Amino acid sequence: MLDSALELVPREIVSHPAVVKNAVRRGKKAENTLLDISLHYKAMKNLENANKRGRPDIVHFALLLFLTLEEEIRGDLFIHTIDGKIIFVDRQMRPPKNYNRFVGLMEQLLLEGKIPPKGDRTLMEITNLKLKDLSRKYSSLIVLSESGRKVNPADLCKLMHENVLFGVGAFAHGDFSSEVKESASDFLSISKNVLETHQVICRVSIACSGFLS
Predict the structure, then answer these.
(1) What pLDDT, in 10s, does the model give residues 187-210?
(2) What are the residues facing 165 on neighbouring strands?
(3) Please, what's the largest Cα pairwise distance for the chain?
(4) Cα separation of 197 and 17, whole Å?
(5) Is the pTM of this model over 0.85?
(6) What residues have CB less than 8 Å from 8, skipping those under 6 apart?
(7) Is 22 annotated as ligand-binding?
(8) Is 54 marked as a binding-site residue?
(9) Would the annotation count 196 as a binding residue?
(10) Is 65 annotated for ligand binding?
(11) What are phi and psi of 149, to 5 degrees?
(12) pLDDT tens profile 10-44
């Protein structure tokens, strides 16, 4: 997932009434809560790239979908956040279906650096990698974008055994960051329509299931 709208409340708006109200209700410090446009809309109006930020629900839905795919088509999974973090996600990770529990888990991850904070098995972890570093570990980074070259989803499946990293945007509006554009090997599109993150995952996974069978 690229430019994912997953981050803690930035310091510029920690004192805004909408942010403080939500933090007090949850018994947390404002800076330790997840940025969410459904709660912080008024506070976010003057933030840079506000239209791309505060949508952890997109990541939640995509994780639930991806991590229940068949083993044969479920590869490595990373979350690249809008502020440049690279989060490793274990294939055995089972995110909570309840959104409020997911929010708490992501807050813990962004504060502690990994989930669980202690223990032998790490399910999610913030790495020291940058997107460019991650892309170099694979033969190429192919970004799925509405403005990319049109291909059939099944064509992507033919690349499954070539150590390719596929990227899909996990934000609501706007364009990919310069970091993504500079790291990508190619931009491809699987539809003439604008698709949401989970729709892209669905279409590609269905195509690859058919390809493998």
Answers:
(1) 999 999 899 999 999 999 888 877
(2) 141
(3) 55
(4) 31
(5) yes
(6) 31, 32, 33, 34, 35, 107, 110, 111
(7) no
(8) no
(9) yes
(10) no
(11) -70, 130
(12) 999 999 999 999 999 999 999 999 999 999 999 99
